[in-house]
Amino acid sequence: MGESSSSSGPGKSGLEGVTAAAKQAPGRGLPPVHLWHPDHCGEIDIVIRADGTWMHEGSPIGRRELVRLFSTVLRQDPDGLHLVTPVEKLKIRVEDLPFRAVALSVGGEGDEPVLTFTTDVGDEVAAGADHPIIVETSPETGEPAPRLHVRGGLEARIARPVFYELVERARVVDGRLCVRSGGVNFALGEPGEGVS
């Protein structure tokens, strides 16, 4: 699993290495995980549950600051989701999506609103061309399954109360309920499809 190595310096491994790498980001910025291509690759017993709870070895990670820190070194690769440092890439499991959009604020002016979502790990994301809102129907429940692109292929499940806020703001455009943000219309579904 790559969890036994030197406990000091940039060669740290496992959770210790992930924490050290995340702390290197300036201010509240994000570490440049897209530039890190470590040779070592393993798995670590971390699961992000569908409700957004981060679990390590079967127990919830209770410190929000630690979860926020880990979230900054997440990377979506073709073979799954990983915590990435300059020296290590550790695969984790995700039951649904890595983040949840839990709050919505509306800015902008007139007919050009900007919908800004806050995730459960503290990211703020303004919906628009680079951060689309996508609504599909869950094959299990038949209910809308809305999501938002956050960064680098990582997405947030839009929480049900936030989705209801979007539906309240929606207008019918070409027979579909849509919300507008950042100059883009996003379809939420057809009226009567569980979204009206």
Question: Can you walk me through this structure?
Answer:
This protein is 14% helix and 42% strand. It has helices at residues 14-23, 64-71, 160-169; strands at 41-48, 54-56, 59-60, 74-77, 80-84, 89-94, 99-109, 112-119, 124-126, 133-137, 144-151, 154-158, 171-173, 176-181, 184-189. With 196 residues, it is mainly beta. The protein is elongated, with a radius of gyration of 19 Å. A six-stranded mixed β-sheet has the order 3-2-1-6-5-4. Strands 9-8-7-12-11-10 form a six-stranded mixed β-sheet.
Short overview:
The chain has 196 residues and is mainly beta. It contains three helices and 15 strands.
Strands, helices and their partners?
Layout: H1 14-23, E1 41-48, E2 54-56, E3 59-60, H2 64-71, E4 74-77, E5 80-84, E6 89-94, E7 99-109, E8 112-119, E9 124-126, E10 133-137, E11 144-151, E12 154-158, H3 160-169, E13 171-173, E14 176-181, E15 184-189
Parallel strand pairs: 1-6, 7-12
Antiparallel strand pairs: 1-2, 2-3, 4-5, 5-6, 7-8, 8-9, 10-11, 11-12, 13-14, 14-15
Q: Mean pLDDT, as a whole number?
A: 85
User: What about the largest sheet?
Assistant: 6 strands, mixed
Distance from N terminus to C terminus (CA atoms, Å) equals 48 Å
Stretches with pLDDT under 50, minimum 5 residues: 1-10
Q: How many β-strand stretches?
A: 15
